[in-house]
């Protein structure tokens, strides 16, 4: 997850949305809610993908649900 953020933000390296996308997709498979938040931004802004507001909204909703589960201590 941290490596994905480094590529997404370009910390000490060039921004690479393609690598970030791949890493966020992998993190999503492990129910990491923060990855869904970044995926929503990537798809909304069309960063290394064709902009897709519907997909962005789906990821955003998933990120909200996963953050709420984490806050409430729910582990699904």
Automatic annotation (TrEMBL):
Q: What InterPro entries would the database entry show?
A: Sel1-like, TPR-like_helical_dom_sf
Q: A Pfam family name for this chain?
A: Sel1
Task: Read off the Gene3D superfamilies from this record.
Answer: Tetratricopeptide repeat domain
Q: What is this protein called?
A: Beta-lactamase
Record lineage: Bacteria, Pseudomonadati, Pseudomonadota, Gammaproteobacteria, Enterobacterales
């Amino acid at each position: 997850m941290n490596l994905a953020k480094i590529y997404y933000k370009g910390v000490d390296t060039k921004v690479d949305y393609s690598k970030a996308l791949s890493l966020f997709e992998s993190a999503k498979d492990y129910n990491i809610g923060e990855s869904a938040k970044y995926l929503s931004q990537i798809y909304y802004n069309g960063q290394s993908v064709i902009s897709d507001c519907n997909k962005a909204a789906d990821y955003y909703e998933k990120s909200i649900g996963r953050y709420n589960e984490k806050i409430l201590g729910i582990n699904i």
